[in-house]
């Protein structure tokens, strides 16, 4: 079982898409989202098409993943802020799997997130929860887990995926870095959040984007950035080092 822990808008879905293409892992897309966004007491988030029959509790989701892992290799991608307290308390679950983390420059992340969800909450930026779970995994294993930087994934996808696979002890599959455009079934509940990933056929370099929001003129987004920046910087110190690129 491999877990990729992310914050929103981190290119984690592109990373997950590679595992869908590989075909040798059963892939679960943000199963713990139901802990926060499904059921009668669900928190609001736009573009939410989660089935009301989706497993809603942390224990239900966790047990479902563990049961699936008895039958096949499992890859699941999720946001730590969906259930951070439960994760921190569940040493057995964290220790059972290979845990990896993905980060992206917080200014880009916050702008991308605010474009889709202007009323997002502070904790939904995600870096603090991500760092807390990272530290818990390091405490449990005695070693820092793998941290992937989205910029490396976008600019050097083959080298980044190979370095990750080497660290995770699985075979690198370069053929899985290309695919046919389309919305995988795993993404349907959040399809509007993944429109660009669904239209993609490979991981490509990020292009400059213009957003309708601006951190520099938005005090709330500035406060979000100041709060989460230290956690990003700590995680960035641990990012996966890639071999020097030969030009």
TrEMBL record:
Gene3D superfamilies for the chain: P-loop containing nucleotide triphosphate hydrolases
- Transmembrane residue ranges: none
Write down the SUPFAM superfamilies for this protein, in alphabetical order.
Answer: P-loop containing nucleoside triphosphate hydrolases
Sorted alphabetically, which InterPro entries does this protein's record hold?
Answer: P-loop_NTPase, Pyrrolopyrazine_biosynth_F
The record ties this protein, via PANTHER family, to: SULFOTRANSFERASE DOMAIN-CONTAINING PROTEIN
Q: Spell out the protein name for this chain.
A: Sulfotransferase family protein
Q: What is the organism lineage in this UniProt record?
A: Bacteria, Pseudomonadati, Pseudomonadota, Betaproteobacteria, Burkholderiales
